[in-house]
Design brief:
single chain; mainly alpha; 3 domains; 0% strand; flat; disordered C terminus
Length: 316
């Protein structure tokens, strides 16, 4: 169950994230104040305190979040709703790039030694031909926009706040992940010991760390493990994320990406050449995954309007 203010704040946040960042905070403050005033007036007229049902009735009557976001933009015949333009562009350009990736390598490899000639021939055929996809999307968007303008849908909103608190963590999952991480760290740190005691002598040397790596590289990795463990412990004991811990996590993810990149292109890790190359390859894979995770976190951080602090969900 949510408080009336929590319903209003969740609704305002849902509207604000669909607006440009430049006006997101101003609109959020204005809309939040307006809805709170209307909710208070509605409660006074009904002679009872505001509750979740009253707040939901108010925001649903106000309109769906995407419709309210459109009210803060110039009116007119819209081919592509502004809140969906970035996604439209990504799909359009992504379709072109996929076609290029599928046809360009084949064209360049068709006649070795004549790559420039084949590149020109490819551009005049498959290269420019791939632009049919954005053209098709724009044509479909024009037709769809005209239909929505000519026969607009009924203004009925079924919006309700998400039942899941995105800041709350699942402690059971965190415990399992922490145990798995601890075993992984122990396996890496103790690699020379368990290799020496449990593997044949010929194979034990494969897991021997380079003597020049441990003083600096080992210290940096241990420091990063410590920072990650401390930040995760704070979130675990609080049971939820907050602004400070999210910023710490973002900084730690950025540092991990920098450290992993340095390990891939920098010092030798293992004495054995094959083991060192394999370690650097898999660290490169992990670095790519960390980069994707970093991009997702930055995107989500930018989507959160600073002017509206989401209220906690009160469970009964």
């Amino acid at each position: 169950m949510m408080t009336p203010d929590a319903v209003v704040e969740a609704y305002v946040s849902d509207v604000a994230r669909r607006l440009p960042r430049a006006k997101r905070n101003d609109v959020a403050l204005e809309l939040q104040a307006l809805l709170r005033d209307e909710l208070q007036g509605k409660a006074e007229m009904s002679g009872r305190a505001a509750d979740e049902a009253m707040a939901l009735e108010l925001v649903r009557a106000f309109g769906a979040p995407e419709e309210v976001a459109e009210r803060y933009r110039p009116a007119g015949f819209t081919i592509i709703p502004a809140t969906r333009s970035a996604r439209f562009a990504a799909v359009a350009l992504g379709g072109v790039v996929l076609q290029w990736l599928g046809t360009l390598p084949t064209a360049l490899l068709k006649e070795p030694g004549r790559e420039l000639v084949m590149l020109g021939a490819w551009w005049l055929t498959y290269g420019l031909g791939a632009l049919w996809w954005p053209g098709f999307m724009v044509t479909a968007a024009i037709a769809g926009g005209w239909v929505r303008h000519r026969w607009p849908p009924a203004p009925v909103s079924t919006w309700r706040p998400s039942s899941r608190d995105r800041d709350e963590i699942n402690r059971t999952t965190w415990v399992i992940s922490s145990i798995a991480a601890a075993f992984g760290i122990a396996a890496l740190v103790g690699a020379p010991w368990w290799a020496k005691n449990f593997l044949p002598p010929a194979a034990a040397g494969v897991f021997e760390y380079d003597a020049d790596f441990l003083p600096l590289g080992g210290a940096v990795v241990v420091a990063m493990w410590t920072l990650t463990a401390v930040s995760c412990a704070i979130v675990f004991f609080e049971g939820r994320w907050r602004a400070l811990t999210r910023q710490i996590d973002l900084a730690a993810t950025l540092l991990w990406f920098a450290v992993l990149t340095w390990l891939v292109v920098g010092p030798r890790i293992f004495v054995n050449d094959a083991a060192d190359e394999a370690a650097k390859f898999w660290m490169g894979v992990v670095a790519a995954m960390v980069a994707i995770d970093l991009a997702v976190k930055i995107y989500r951080q930018m989507q959160r309007p600073r002017a509206v602090a989401l209220a906690g969900i009160v469970k009964t």
